[in-house]
């Protein structure tokens, strides 16, 4: 039985807080892809391993973040907010997948507790999302620019 309690405050889950949403939205250039989008509608195209009710079927792709079905260098901006407890041993795999989706001179907006060094990309800005709650994690929003064309192994065959 679902009863309404006016003392409780409900909000959608798996999306950025409004301040973070607005900050990231202001950084997007060109056509954008949001990987690990959850319930967020931020970006032009959305990828997640689980479809949320709020997602538009025309711009949502059901996929694993480690195996993105995206042609290399297809987007001006790629946004990602991965699970924050992602194991050290697989972080590089995610970063490579994201990097491969970004066009030359495009950007990657990466929100997490860790920030990587990415070959072919330069960290242009690192912002800290502060909150008013004690003992809560803060987010690090790294903005990387792709400064070098990628070497494509497929072109050698």
Strand order of the largest sheet: 3-2-1-4-5-7-6
Looking at CATH, which topology would you report?
Rossmann fold
Low-confidence stretches: none
Helix proportion: 10-25%
**What's the end-to-end separation, in Å?**
62 Å
Described by the principal axes of the CA atoms, the overall outline is globular
Give the C-level CATH assignment: Alpha Beta
Average pLDDT works out at 84
Please give the structural blueprint.
Elements (H helix, E strand, L loop, with lengths): L17 H10 L4 E4 L9 E4 L11 E3 L12 E6 L7 H14 E11 L8 E9 L9 E8 L11
Q: What would the keywords be for this entry?
A:
alpha/beta; single chain; Rossmann fold; 15% helix; 157 residues; 7-stranded mixed β-sheet
Describe this structure in words.
This protein has 157 residues and is an alpha/beta fold. The chain has one domain: Rossmann fold (3-Layer(aba) Sandwich). The chain is built from two helices and seven strands; from the N terminus they run αββββαβββ. The protein has helices at 18-27, 88-101, and strands at 32-35, 45-48, 60-62, 75-80, 102-112, 121-129, 139-146. Strands 3-2-1-4-5-7-6 form a seven-stranded mixed beta sheet. Helix 2 (88-101) links the parallel strand 4 and strand 5. The longest helix has 14 residues, at 88-101. The chain starts with 17 loop residues before the first helix and ends in an 11-residue tail after the last strand. The mean pLDDT is 84.
């Amino acid at each position: 039985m679902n009863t309404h309690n006016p003392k409780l405050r409900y909000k959608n889950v798996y999306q950025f807080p409004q301040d973070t949403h607005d900050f990231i939205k202001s950084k997007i250039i060109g056509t954008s892809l949001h990987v690990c989008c959850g319930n967020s509608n931020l970006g032009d195209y959305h990828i997640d391993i689980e479809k949320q009710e709020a997602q538009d079927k025309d711009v949502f792709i059901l996929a694993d973040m480690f195996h993105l079905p995206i042609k290399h260098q297809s987007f001006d901006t790629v946004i990602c907010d991965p699970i924050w407890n992602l194991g050290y041993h697989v972080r590089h795999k995610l970063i490579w997948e994201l990097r491969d989706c970004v066009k030359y001179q495009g950007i990657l907006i990466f929100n997490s507790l860790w920030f990587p060094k990415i070959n072919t990309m330069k960290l242009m800005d690192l912002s800290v999302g502060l909150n008013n709650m004690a003992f809560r994690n803060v987010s690090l929003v790294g903005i990387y620019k792709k400064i070098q064309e990628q070497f494509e192994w497929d072109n050698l065959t």
